[in-house]
Amino acid sequence: MAAKLISTGFRHTTLPENYVRPLSDRPRLSQVSQLEDFPLIDISSTDRSRLVQQIHQACARFGFFQVINHGVRKATIDEMVSVAHEFFGMSMDEKMKLYSDDPTKTPRLSTSFNVKEEEVNNWRDYLRLHCYPIDKYVHEWPSNPPSFKEVVSKYCREVRELGFTIEELISESLGLEKDYMKNVLGEQGQHMAVNYYPPCPEPELTYGLPAHTDPNALTILLQDATVCGLQILIDGHWFAINPRPDAFVINIGDQLQALSNGVYKSVWHRAVTNTEKPRLSIASFMCPDNGAVISPAKPLWEAKEEEAKPIYRDYTYAEYYKKFWSRNLDQEHCLENFLND
Ligand code: OGA
Ligand code: NI
User: Fold this and answer.
1) Domains and CATH numbers, the chain
2) What's the DSSP call for residue 97?
3) Ligand 2 centroid to 95 CA: how many Å?
4) Closest atom of ligand 1 relative to the 124 alpha carbon
5) In whole angstroms, what is the distance from residue 30 CA to residue 330 CA?
6) How many whole angstroms separate alpha carbon 109 and alpha carbon 224?
7) CA 270 / ligand 1 centre spacing (Å)
8) 307 C-alpha vs ligand 1 centroid, how far in Å?
9) Could you give the CA distance from residue 5 to residue 65 in angstroms, rounded to a whole number?
10) Catalyses which reaction (predicted)?
């Protein structure tokens, strides 16, 4: 069923039928807990060995962590958030100029996840952009609001630096050379999803985004400072990751799980809705070059006991990405298709 944008300003009093999940697949919000020991990492710390150890523990246990003192300026973030709100607040006529339900098209303003393929839709609108190299893509970005291109370019540049800093820490935390990930991932792409979840009349019946793992290498998420919605699956239980205004949420994508030979986890996560307020989240995805060959880092298995082997087979990111988009979002972990026998 085709759905069109839901950020219309109209407040539904009941959930339209095409968003209602079957009983067996609902958020069960009363069973979600707070994650008390969710890692909060100050990445400006000069105690490198402690920092690297914190990263290791966070990536191995949760696949998710928050960073503060991350180097992305507050003004850059504030401007990005306000231009995103302005964008979704534009008239329907203006927004529909950018609308597409073709998942291969960028930039595109769309809704749900993959509307043409899904049986049940998700309570989300999103703007998807390619952001690297900026000069190649900026001309195709929205020209309204008028400050959009300038504000988003600045944000993308600063976030990319943060991404590289974290990739270095992740490499070191696996006992690899500092530049290991950067070298393997090649000329990394950068994609952005500006997610907008309008208030939802019946949050118990639907998702903003259903459970998924991210197919890329690393995700840098800016959460709405005041509205909760992100949840992660740990030991079979859903936990809420409540926002901290000064922090980014970082998560390991499928490619870093493969490169770490499964030591680090690309964890299931989802976004739920609420009745009160719209929620904005801005996800920046660091993506391997299409031709990058992903294979479990040799030092992580080669020197180990005889039976130790790479869990995953070698593949290119292009091959992985194609497989990812040929599935439903909430099917099996996509990496299971790339296991060694
Ligand atoms: C995503 C995602 C979570 C959120 O865009 O991949 O997981 O809180 N977003 O919006
Ligand atoms: Ni995600």
Assistant:
1) 26-291 (2.60.120.330)
2) T
3) 24
4) 10
5) 21
6) 19
7) 7
8) 38
9) 31
10) salicylate + NADH + O2 + H(+) = 2,3-dihydroxybenzoate + NAD(+) + H2O
Which ligand 1 atom minimizes the distance to the CA of 283?
Answer: 5
pLDDT in tens, the chain (341 residues): 456 899 999 999 999 999 999 999 999 999 999 998 999 999 999 999 999 999 999 999 999 999 999 999 999 999 999 999 999 999 999 999 999 998 889 899 999 988 888 899 999 999 999 999 999 999 999 999 999 999 999 999 999 999 999 999 999 999 999 999 999 999 999 999 999 999 999 999 999 999 999 999 999 999 999 999 999 999 999 999 999 999 999 999 999 999 999 999 999 999 999 999 999 999 999 999 999 999 999 999 987 666 678 999 999 999 999 998 887 766 789 999 999 98
Enter the tokens of residue 253: 């994508």
Please give the structure tokens belonging to residue 304. Answer: 């180990």
Tokens of 210: 């259903």
- Around ligand 1, the residues with Cβ closer than 6 Å are 193, 195, 209, 214, 223, 229-230, 269, 271, 281, 283
- Give the predicted TM-score (pTM) of the model: 0.96
Helix, strand, coil percent content, the chain, rounded in steps of 5: 30, 20, 45
Query: Can you tell me the distance from the alpha carbon of 27 to that of 231, in angstroms, rounded to the nearest whole number?
Result: 10
Question: What's the 269 CA to ligand 2 centre distance in angstroms?
Answer: 6
- d(C-alpha 55, C-alpha 43), whole Å: 9
Reduced to 3 states, what is the DSSP secondary structure of residue 56? Answer: helix
Ligand number nearest to the C-alpha of 281: 1
| Token pair for 137 | 């893509």
Look at residues 217, 287, 183, 210 and name the one whose alpha carbon lies nearest to residue 63.
Answer: 217
Q: Whose CA is nearest to atom 10 of ligand 1?
A: 281
